[in-house]
Write a sequence for this structure.
């Protein structure tokens, strides 16, 4: 998806959302974290996955653990909808990478809520709808491969 407006015409929220995609593609953890308000919370949904919300500190630790496991990570934006007045952006994204457990392919819908005033353009909440099959089947294989097991999770 290409932006139809220049960055000077984009809202701070849209600039942040597009920078977030760039930061993930570069696996730039400091940049990812710099886009989040200090109180930002990340929630993986659906809730049936039983993944607790994460603060900036726990999200950073999670990223530091996963970044070395993903090679050639690419996050692709397919759609972006912005509600300027509500300071929200919803994005449909796909990801692919090479890992010790094989090819990683996932699909996400991210809902980003943004601050105002001093926190304008900062992410206050990041809700991520993930592919539950990938989450339940691929991640255990990846964790096993990172611990020295084989790609099949055995």
């Amino acid at each position: 998806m290409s932006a139809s407006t220049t960055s000077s015409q984009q809202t701070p929220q849209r600039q942040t959302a597009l920078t977030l995609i760039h930061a993930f593609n570069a696996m730039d953890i400091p940049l990812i974290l710099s886009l989040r308000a200090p109180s930002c919370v990340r929630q993986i949904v659906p809730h049936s996955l039983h993944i607790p919300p994460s603060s900036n500190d726990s999200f950073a630790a999670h990223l530091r653990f996963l970044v070395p496991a993903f090679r050639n990570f690419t996050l692709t934006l397919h759609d972006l909808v912005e509600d300027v007045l509500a300071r929200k952006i919803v994005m449909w994204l796909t990801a692919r990478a090479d890992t010790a457990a094989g090819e990683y392919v996932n699909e996400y819908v991210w809902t980003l809520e943004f601050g105002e005033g001093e926190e304008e353009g900062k992410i206050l909440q990041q809700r991520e709808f993930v592919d539950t099959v990938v989450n339940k089947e691929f991640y255990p294989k990846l964790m096993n491969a990172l611990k020295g097991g084989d790609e099949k999770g055995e």
Remarks:
- The chain is about 30% helix and 35% strand.
- The beta strands are 36-45, 71-83, 88-99, 102-114, 123-130.
- Confidence is low (pLDDT under 50) at residues 1-5.
- Residues 132-146 form the longest helix (15 residues).
